[in-house]
Fold this sequence. Notes:
Layout: H1 4-41, H2 43-67, H3 70-79, H4 83-109, H5 112-118, H6 122-135, H7 139-154, H8 158-181, E1 183-185, E2 188-190, H9 195-219, H10 238-269, H11 274-310, H12 314-341, H13 343-350, H14 354-364, H15 367-386, H16 391-414, H17 427-460
Amino acid sequence: MTSPGRLASLRQLAPLAWPVFVGQVAVLANSTVDTVLMARYSANDLAALAVGVAIYITIFLGLMGVVLAISPIAGQLFGAKKLAQAGDELHQSLWLALGLSLLGCLALLFPDPMLSLARVTPDVEGKVRGYLSTLALGLPPALLFTAYRGFNTAVSRPKVVMAIQLAGLALKVPLSLLLIYGFGLGSLQVPALGAVGCAAATALVMWAQALIAWRLVRRDPFYAPFGLNTGGLHAPRWAAIKSMLKLGVPMGAGMLIEVTGFTFMAIFIARLGATAVAGHQLAMNLVSLLFMAPMALGNAAQTLVAQNVGAQRLADARRLGWHSLEIALALAFCMGGLVFLGREQILGLYTQDPAIIAAAMPLLIWLWWFHVGDAGQTVGAFVLRAHRIATVPMLVYALAIWGVGIGGGYWLAFGEAAWIPARFHGAPGFWSAATVGLALAATGMGGFLAWVHAKEVQTRA
């Protein structure tokens, strides 16, 4: 990481990566706030939060991945200096977000297929249903804001998104406190809502962020060259939406496969009881926090690689793609090691419940290498999407995460073979298999990226 080439790449990546990192940490902090508050509220509500978040994230991230097709598309157009065309693509992505919101809301209101896998107790199931039906109110603005976020990332303007996300966090904390524990203000009495209060606070924050984004697009002169300051929403252009779907559906499917590798862990671990799934929730929240760094770096890499591809600077695109992957792996190795060494103290920040800590501790043994594999596959996938390649990453995810991670994890966790060591029974079985799956996914992404680069060199030779 000390060679001039890598340092030059890091100087280009860092200004785009750090605002994304801060913004995504703010987004994750919303979930962390809910997790900490639920851990102190009740084990049943924490279990409901874990299962509800797993289902919601499965639905939301799959749809979000489709909407985020705007990012590589607008990035290449921005690199080619076709600004008005890039602005029109944002309009089309908003139509796409609205259409996908209808599908997502139906899935949240009728979650029976996924709830049947969790096999939670009736009282936890009721809380999960209330959580999901309340979050359905916040899904449309969340997807609309996703389109805005993807566009701003593509045109190298992530700081404004970061500012909105930080404002959302500042609003989320007091709302969650008030709605989870209840409050009274004169004749207004709001009862303690528990997990449902988390969802209500999140939905209100989503609407606030979407309204702020709309106001900025209409008033900020930065958006004028893109044709976004005047006029109404452009009519839908089916050719543009079809092009987005062609790239976005495999992007969304890839993200869906990736996230279900984790959400199905929570759903299956829920069969082991509230304490086991609560421990898993703490470990997964910690992994999600670590994930923000490679995701931010991947976003920055996607932006710069897409812009260079659009400007026909393919050598720069290749350099940035490889260097971002190398930097992500080195950073993940260091961060994972630090968290592994301080795991006892870190878990103590979440809860003082010894049963939940005991359930989470064996899972963190796998965290170090889990995070390295996660970083490699994440940045590799982002760089491939910058080249408008999403189908191969989707197939890699299906094999590595569904096949090895979920299939292998279920076999280890619930298998009855006498030769399977006891330490792989239950939740640790899922975490060990997921670690191997992520390592395979990272290897697959890196190998295919090398093939793409070699093909580009041959084509221009």
